[in-house]
């Protein structure tokens, strides 16, 4: 992991040289392998932790993006997941609790040439970092946010988190949690995020597919990753991982395809009488009633309704890309505003200071 210099000149011979160097390095990017994204740091997660799978998946598909390692920055907060930058041979920053989206926002806004990533956990992102997360999402800053959700505080040894189920018995809730858990996908869609997906740590193919789409998205992309903590919350997602129950309760989201799932496609998703979504038996409805998944629908209410199908016990859990729409990014709009300000009439500082919004303090 390295530090990054935010002071790159905007123009001039030095900037041209840097640009030429970056271009040349970018052209060589196709030669990179997964091993090129690995550092010499010992990977220190508990044996069997789902984070290993996610790290391996990210390192494996990054070469296909054609992004030079020096053009990528990974910012993390605090938690088990936040060790991630140490293990990635890119620029990175292990920041402070919950503030990774804020730091990444400043970086993405000042250096739009970089690929900016945030790695966070359910505690880091949704507790102390909840405010920073929703504002990054609503602003549509060009960054990719990976939210590892294990429904527990792992680094601090097993307290309940903002995604823990009601009644969850932990060290901090010995009589069971009273809090209703956040649904991270619903929260992101409520903030009008332009890309929202969900994947499972153990589903290498599905995880890689969602990650690739998120990385290619222009704007804020949030991917919730169900990640098993085998020490403090082992088996949290077994209902979806078990070959006997997983197909029954997992709803695969494929753009342009009907939402049919379960053994032999026995279940499906249809509209209810209020315009929302509900689960039905495929044999009991007409084929035209089955919802065809459209991740590009501008109105987020459809994607939000999808996210509400799942209960806290994980039954009827959609997996894949919920929403992928295009809107202007924050840094692009900021650049336009700065350009407009720079080409207008020079500001008169004296006139500004002597304007009408002044007052005199009496001694």
Automatic annotation (TrEMBL):
Q: Give the Thiamine pyrophosphate enzyme TPP-binding domain ranges.
A: 78-225
Q: Tell me which Gene Ontology terms the entry assigns under biological process.
A: cellular respiration
Which protein are we looking at? 2-oxoglutarate ferredoxin oxidoreductase subunit beta
One Gene Ontology MF term: thiamine pyrophosphate binding
Gene3D superfamilies, A to Z? 3.40.50.970
Say if the entry is tagged with keyword Oxidoreductase: yes
Q: Which UniProt keywords apply?
A: Oxidoreductase
Pfam families per the record? Answer: TPP_enzyme_C
Q: Which InterPro entries match?
A: 2-oxoacid:Fd_oxidoreductase (IPR051457), THDP-binding (IPR029061), TPP_enzyme_TPP-bd (IPR011766)
């Amino acid at each position: 992991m390295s530090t990054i210099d935010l002071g790159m000149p905007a123009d001039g011979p030095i900037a041209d040289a840097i640009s030429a160097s970056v271009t040349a390095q970018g052209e060589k990017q196709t030669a990179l392998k997964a091993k090129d994204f690995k550092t010499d740091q010992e990977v220190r997660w508990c044996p069997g932790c789902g984070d290993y799978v996610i790290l391996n998946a990210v390192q494996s598909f990054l070469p296909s993006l054609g992004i030079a390692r020096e053009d990528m920055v990974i910012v993390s907060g605090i938690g088990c997941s936040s060790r991630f930058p140490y293990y990635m041979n890119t620029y990175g920053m292990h920041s402070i609790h919950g503030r990774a989206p804020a730091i990444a926002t400043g970086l993405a806004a000042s250096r739009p040439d970089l690929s900016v990533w945030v790695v966070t956990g359910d505690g880091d992102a949704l507790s102390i970092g909840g405010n920073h997360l929703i504002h990054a999402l609503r602003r549509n800053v060009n960054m990719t946010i990976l939210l590892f959700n294990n429904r527990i505080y792992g680094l601090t040894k097993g307290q309940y988190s903002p995604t823990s189920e009601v009644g969850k018995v932990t060290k901090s809730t010995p009589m069971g949690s009273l809090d209703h858990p956040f649904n991270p996908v619903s929260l992101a869609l409520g903030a009008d995020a332009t890309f929202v997906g969900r994947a499972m740590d153990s589903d290498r193919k599905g995880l890689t597919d969602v990650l690739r789409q998120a990385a290619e998205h222009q704007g804020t992309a949030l991917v919730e990753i169900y990640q098993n903590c085998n020490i403090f919350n082992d088996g949290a997602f077994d209902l979806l991982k078990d070959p006997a129950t997983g197909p029954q309760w997992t709803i695969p989201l494929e753009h342009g395809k009907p939402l049919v799932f379960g053994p032999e496609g026995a279940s499906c998703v249809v509209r209810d009488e209020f315009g929302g979504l509900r689960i039905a038996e495929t044999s009991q409805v007409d084929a035209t009633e089955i919802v065809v998944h459209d991740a590009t629908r501008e109105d987020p209410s459809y994607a939000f309704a999808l996210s509400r199908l799942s209960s806290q016990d994980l039954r009827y859990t959609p997996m894949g890309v919920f929403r992928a729409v295009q809107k202007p990014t924050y840094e692009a709009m900021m650049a336009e505003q700065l350009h407009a300000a720079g080409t207008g009439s020079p500001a008169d500082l004296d006139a500004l200071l002597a304007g009408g919004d002044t007052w005199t303090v009496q001694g």
